[in-house]
Design goal:
Layout lengths: L3 H29 L6 H4 L11 E3 L5 H14 L8 H19 L3 E9 L2 E9 L4
Antiparallel strand pairs: 1-2, 2-3
């Protein structure tokens, strides 16, 4: 006889296995039918994730800024309120302000949803020694 706790754990494990098996079969079917998303289209910006954070130095790397801008566009479901070059200038001003206040070498930007709105959060990274 199994205890109720063991039965619960087994049922939970079976459900998790079935959901992963179904996901795997769905992805395999999409790949076989040619509907799988292309990895090459997202490869240049795959290293940057705006929800976990993108570190930008004062050099404003174009791929990092572009990844942040694209993520903002996706979250807003359309074009952001400003053009890419204006966004780059905005980030440069924010980085300079944070560097003056904290002496940080770089700034980590991430997107966060608060009260139904998408907000750009900044956090200093590293310090000037």
């Amino acid at each position: 006889m199994r205890t109720a706790a063991e039965q619960f754990r087994l049922t939970q494990l079976e459900a998790r296995f079935n959901s992963y098996a179904e996901l795997n079969h769905r992805r395999l079917r999409e790949k076989e039918e040619g509907r799988a998303p292309r990895a090459a289209a997202t490869a240049p910006r795959a290293a940057h994730d705006a929800t976990s954070g993108i570190v930008i130095t004062d050099r404003l790397e174009s791929d990092a800024v572009g990844a942040l801008y694209d993520a903002l566009a996706r979250e807003q479901r359309g074009a952001p309120a400003m053009a890419l070059e204006a966004f780059r200038g905005y980030l440069a001003r924010q980085i300079e302000n944070i560097r003056l206040k904290t002496g940080a070498e770089a700034v980590q930007f991430r997107l966060a949803a608060e009260e139904g709105k998408i907000k750009l959060k900044a956090r200093p990274v590293g310090s000037a020694s």
